Amino acid sequence: MASGGVEGSAELRIDGAAKRFGEVAALDGVSLQVARGELLTILGPSGSGKTTLLKVVAGFEKPDAGSVKIDGVEITALPPARRDIGMVFQNYALFPHLTVERNVAFPLEMRNVTKAEIARRVAEALALVELAGYEQRLPRQLSGGQQQRVALARAIVFNPRLLLLDEPFGALDRKLRETMQLEVRRLQRRLGLTTIFITHDQEEALVLSDRIAVMNKGTIQQIATTTEIYERPANDFVADFVGESNIFHGTMSGTGVVTLEGGRQLRVSTSAVPGKRVGVLMRPERFASGGINAFAGEVVESVYLGTSFKLRLACEDGLELLVRQPARGELPAPGARATFGIDPDAIHVF
Amino acid sequence: MNRSFFPALPALVLLFFFFLFPVVRMLGFSLEGGSLDWYAKALGEGLYLRVFWNTFEIALLVTLFCLLLGYPLGFLMATTTPLWATVGFIFVLLPLWTSVLVRTYAWMVLLGRNGVFNRTLIDAGIITDPIPLLHNFTGVLIGMVHVLLPYMVLPVYGAVRRLDPAIVAAAEGLGASNWRIFWRIYLPLTLNGIFAGAVIVFVLSLGFFITPALLGGGRVIMIAVLIEQQVRETLNWPFAAALSAVLLVATFAVYALAQRFTRTEPAT
Question: Across the interface, do B173 and A154 touch by the CB < 8 Å criterion?
């Protein structure tokens, strides 16, 4: 672990994983690969199947079909105890009757590591999560953030081949959550741990991940780098779920021109052929006052958010637009008229 | 105290007239003539001390057997499928809803010299003479364990159910075998339930009457049986009252001791 740990970390491969609960397909043929040392986030709303996928990887759930491989070795049928996977649970699942030290020592004791070696590695892991000095505390004597650190130390102390994080920040307040996110990221990079992180929080996913897999209804909607997911979502669901968005549908009516349902024409930069049905995504922060692709209308709602204004604009042709502008000058009052434009390069066509 | 105790008044009145008042009256009987003679007799004579000792011994053994039988049952009921848990509940609760008297007579039918057990064993050629199971220590033990088993099973079931499944999953994921999960996680985290069940069974055993009276056949004397004899046969009410007072104090002592133990235990 201290030596960089990359050699212990592994590559994960899931092929065609499927799992039904009665009528519901929790997983509907999921395939993905996580590279050695990569942090992949599985992002999705509740009920999207992300927790089932995590359970399949950890071994708590057997898939109806498909396989899970670590470094090319199939582990689909292996019980959780023999997978060498470190996991941080939603509510940490610390052992309430054991001290911090004994909690962290647990996985080592299960592996019959010698006493001296256990003491050395527990101290090392606790130092890594900055909890040296808390050895003799019981979990209930710790704050939420500290409990989380113990859970993390316990999950990495035995050099797992894979680290799974199941919505670990949900119970923390915003400030602490941001601190812990960065800390987990730093630790994960330093140890070179192959990591799967589960969350329904798209902001968190953007902060932490190398790549994001967006899930919905048991399938992966898109799997790509964070910028790719945000800038070039593959479909309506991803565009809508990650970040704020204006999504419209239309038809390519010429090279670089989309005619939206309702008749409005937009200049876009895309190679899509004329006649094709397309979706159009415009992020609220990409609008500027006036200019090309102008949307004129009436401000129906305006909110001051500190760094930005968030406006809802009702256009003459019935379109409604969400716009974010840097907070400078007066906040436009509802009823005010405004015109915003957007550069063709800032419009994503899918 | 700013909360009104008015809603509890009917119950308090009831407890006062039908519990506290009789208990005080009884203590009054035991101090007849202002002397402690009856207490000296109860605690000084070997015969009566033996009965006390007997009572504690039986209560302890009943508790032990209830624990050995009840923990696995409560544990299984808490961890199995809902269907099997329901089946378990029916088997545990049905006897609890049946009169103790009926159950004890049923055991007499089963355990007697010509009872179902002995008949079956003799017919099968396993034994030639009937095993004495009734009107002795064994009979009392079997009957009491059966009557008191639910009081052990239910707290254990509750304790196991209260345990966060994620904790067990965590132990499993960290490499613990089922055996180690049981010893390192389940057992220490359900100690409170075990303890609660054991205290209930032990305390109930101390004052048990019907089962030892009928299955013991007058040969196994527990303290409650002795008190009844004093009241009904020798009409020695002051001595019966003194014995009752000693039993009451002993029961309270056990309970207080148990409370102290639970308080020092880590909350789960």
Answer: no
- The complex scores an ipTM of 0.82
Residue B194, chain A, CB below 8 Å: the answer is no
Of A94, A110, A138, the CB nearest to B180: A110
| B24 at A interface, C-beta within 8 A | no
Instruction: Report the 3 state secondary structure along chain B.
Output: CCCCCHHHHHHHHHHHHHHHHHHHHHHHHHCHHHCCHHHHHHHHCHHHHHHHHHHHHHHHHHHHHHHHHHHHHHHHHHHCCHHHHHHHHHHHHHHHHCCHHHHHHHHHHHHCCCCHHHHHHHHCCCCCCCCCCCCCHHHHHHHHHHHHHHHHHHHHHHHHHHCCHHHHHHHHHCCCCHHHHHHHHHHHHCHHHHHHHHHHHHHHHHCCCHHHHHHHCCCCCCHHHHHHHHHHCCCCHHHHHHHHHHHHHHHHHHHHHHHHHHHHCCCC
| pLDDT string in tens for chain A (350-residue length) | 443 444 568 899 999 999 999 888 999 999 999 999 999 999 999 989 999 999 999 999 999 999 999 999 999 999 999 999 999 999 899 999 999 999 999 999 999 999 999 999 999 999 999 999 999 999 999 999 999 999 999 999 999 999 999 998 887 888 888 888 998 999 999 999 999 999 999 989 998 999 999 999 999 999 999 999 999 999 999 999 999 999 999 999 888 899 998 888 899 988 788 888 999 999 999 998 878 898 999 999 999 998 999 999 999 888 899 999 998 888 888 989 989 999 999 999 99
In angstroms, rounded to a whole number, what is the distance separating the alpha carbons of residues A93 and A115? Answer: 24
What is the domain count for chain B?
1
Distance, in angstroms, between A152 CA and closest chain B CA? 12
Assigned domain for B211 exists: yes
Inter-chain CB proximity A95 and B177 less than 8 Å: no
| Interchain proximity A85–B173, CB inside 8 Å | yes
Nearest to B213, CA basis, from B205, B224, B204, B202: B224
Residues in chain A: 350
Residue range of the domain that includes B104: 37-264
Domain annotation for chain A: domains and CATH numbers:
6-236 (3.40.50.300), 246-349 (2.40.50.140)
Model pTM score:
0.81
Chain A residues with a Cβ under 8 Å from any Cβ in chain B:
58-60, 79-87, 89-91, 93-97, 106-107, 110-111, 138, 140, 154, 158
Kindly report the CA angle at B245 between B239 and B248, in degrees rounded to 5? 145
In a domain, B157, yes or no: yes
The answer to whether residue B106 is domain-embedded is yes
Enumerate residues 6+ apart whose C-beta is below 8 A from B264: none
Task: Give the A:B interface size as CB pairs under 8 Å.
Answer: 67
> Quick check: A181 and A204 in contact, CB under 8 A?
yes
From chain A, the residues in CB contact with B176 under 8 A are 81, 106, 110
- Judged by CB atoms closer than 8 Å, whether chains meet at A106 and B171 is answered as yes
Residues A93, B175: C-beta atoms closer than 8 Å:
no
Place of tokens 């095993």: B131
What residues of chain A lie within 8 A of the CB of B185, using their CB?
Answer: 95
Helix residue ranges, H only, A86-201:
100-110, 115-128, 144-156, 174-191
CATH number of the domain residue B208 falls in? 1.10.3720.10
Does residue B6 sit within a domain? no
